[in-house]
UniProtKB/TrEMBL annotation:
Source organism (scientific name): Candidatus Viridilinea halotolerans
Keyword Signal: yes
Signal peptide per UniProt: 1-22
Record keywords: Signal
Highest taxon of source: Bacteria
Protein name: WG repeat-containing protein
């Protein structure tokens, strides 16, 4: 098993948010782990404590972090660093932890914070799954050694090799899980614990061909009781342009079986225009027979010929798997999930990914974010006495590099958290006269880290019945550009500005025809056109200057509609 990083370019399309309020069932990004650390394991001894572990990009070091929930916010603290990758972790309580990984590494943390090495120190071993019982006095560690499956058993204070049946080809164990009188291990094959021996079992039929001819890479398993268990994995692609397919299987009294049809939602979520749609399931947690989460990632072609990707979330309740909105994050693959109860969860993955579910946003919005603030007098913070607000960090960089005052106007609020009504996630936002900035930490370091909110959709929500907002096909005017996606032509007066200043990712598609409209601010009539994220205004008096095309004051209009100005 390698340590894959999926390099992708992902554009989020964010709909109009609502003011932040208490949220109990939302997905949120937890920051605090560097992007060059790829988390592989998470364990929660309680709903407000967690341990996570992983490795660096070149797989030469391992890291352990402690998470604690304080005042509704997850805080991440460095705990330990090792000279080998960490791939598995178990917490016995809030202080006692055992981690394992490459080179036969197994290290135990005691209640006082001391770490003791107790592994076999064998460079050929790679431990990927760890389980402990009887308050840590017994357990199993499984993985791979020299292209073969590896099983280690813990007892009498030491680890020793246990018997595991070896297939006739390269093989490995990715994960194992246990219940009283039951244990299953998955990877290149499927193993069942028989006494103290791991025996090969028949792979479930998941490829839709009526047989077992396809290869499967099983990535996670959860055992409910002696007769019931779940597993997830993927049918890998066998060529450069082939598509991998995520799979889920359930075991009951009749044996292993496909958990849903081959063409279930995981296989056709918004199919790509080109037909390339690859998805893999990489993490699983079953709290009980009625509640569970499966995580993975999906990579697909976009209409413009580039690749995009989503973090895929499937929730099990009411006897079925239900797809949730994708949790998009650039370059991230989920590898571990833990549910302390049916309403909360933590997910970890590559690129320092930590997602929380059910803990609400990491910040809360003020009652009126437009209230002026005093000049803090801090280096790196720009203060605008005209409105009494500051500009700092990523938002300041974006504002200054992309047109500043001319394009966006003055800041009308400080940064605050706002819940997106479409996907339930909380983002840090700041309103300006002509725009709303949204910070997307899942795209840190890319051009999509700051995005403009869909204010154009908001301001035209009640006007869809008016003539300018009825799609009419190509106008045929010289210089126009027609967009079949919305059925509108962009006026030639706006094409150059749209193309030079970010185009589709920044302003979105046109959602109206060009028409003349009276400006509320000065009472004059201008040629305007509404886009998903703003309104363009053509000012012929300023032809040939940077002020020929201006953005409408939609930020001001939104804040006024909320009663904040």
């Amino acid at each position: 098993m390698k340590y894959p990083i999926l390099f992708i370019l992902c554009i989020l399309c964010i709909l109009m948010p609502q003011p932040a309020q208490a949220q109990s069932a939302t997905w949120d990004v937890v920051s605090g782990v560097p992007a060059d650390v790829h988390l592989r394991a998470v364990f929660m001894p309680s709903a407000d404590r967690a341990w996570v572990a992983g490795l660096n990009s070149d797989a030469t070091r391992g890291f352990v972090y402690r998470l604690q929930l304080q005042d509704g916010r997850w805080h991440v603290d460095d705990e330990a660093t090792f000279d080998r990758p960490i791939l598995a972790l178990v917490a016995l309580d809030h202080e006692r932890v055992v981690v394992a990984g490459a080179g036969g590494l197994i290290v135990r943390r005691d209640a006082l914070g001391g770490w003791t090495h107790e592994g076999l120190n064998d460079s050929s071993m790679e431990i990927r799954s760890l389980a402990l019982f009887a308050d840590g006095a017994a357990g199993w560690a499984l993985g791979t050694q020299n292209g073969r499956p590896l099983a280690l058993r813990y007892g009498d204070g030491r680890w020793f090799a246990a018997e595991i049946e070896i297939p006739n080809r390269a093989s490995w164990v990715n994960a194992a899980h246990f219940a009283p009188e039951a244990g299953w291990a998955v990877g290149s094959h499927l193993w069942r614990l028989d006494g103290n021996i791991w025996r090969l079992d028949t792979m479930p039929t998941l490829c839709g061909d009526g047989g077992n001819s396809c290869e499967l890479d099983l990535t996670a398993v959860r055992v409910i009781d002696s007769q019931h268990a779940w597993l997830v994995g993927s049918q890998p692609s066998l060529c450069l342009f082939c598509a991998a397919k995520g799979r889920i299987a359930l075991r009951d009294a009749s044996g292993w079986q496909n958990a849903f049809p081959l063409r279930a939602p995981i296989d056709h979520l918004a199919p790509s225009a080109t037909g390339y749609d690859s998805n893999m399931l990489t993490a699983l947690f079953m709290l009980d027979v009625n509640n569970g989460l499966a995580l993975g990632h999906r990579r697909y072609n976009t209409p413009d010929g580039t690749f995009s990707a989503d973090v895929v979330a499937l929730r099990y309740n009411a006897g079925a798997w239900h797809y949730e909105r994708p949790l998009a994050r650039s370059n991230a693959v989920p590898h571990g999930v833990f549910m302390p109860n049916a309403n909360q969860a933590l997910v970890v993955g590559s690129e320092g990914l930590i997602l929380s579910y059910g803990y609400g946003g990491q910040t809360t919005a003020p009652e009126n974010p437009t209230q002026p603030v005093p000049n803090p007098g801090l280096i790196g913070v720009r203060y605008f006495p005209e409105t009494g607000h500051t500009l700092r960090g990523t938002f300041r960089t974006y504002w200054e590099r992309n047109g500043g005052l001319m394009r966006f106007g003055y800041p009308l609020t400080e940064e605050f958290a706002e819940v997106n009504s479409d996907n339930g996630r909380t983002y840090s936002v700041q309103y300006f006269e002509r725009a709303r900035f949204e910070h997307h930490p899942e795209h840190d370091g890319t051009q999509y880290e700051v995005q403009l909110g869909l204010l154009g959709h908001w301001v035209t929500a009640e006007r869809k019945g008016e003539a300018p907002f009825q799609p009419s096909g190509p106008r045929g005017f010289p210089g126009d550009i027609y967009f079949p996606a919305t059925g509108f032509s962009m006026a030639g007066e706006f094409v150059g500005f749209w193309q030079r200043n970010g185009g589709l990712p920044i302003y979105g598609y046109p959602i109206s025809a060009p028409f003349y409209e009276v400006n509320q601010a000065d009472g004059n009539s201008y040629l305007v056109q509404y886009f998903e994220r703003n309104r363009f205004e053509y000012h012929p008096a300023h032809a040939g200057t940077p002020y020929e095309v201006l953005l409408g004051l939609l930020g001001s209009e939104y804040l006024q509609a909320q009663g904040w100005r």
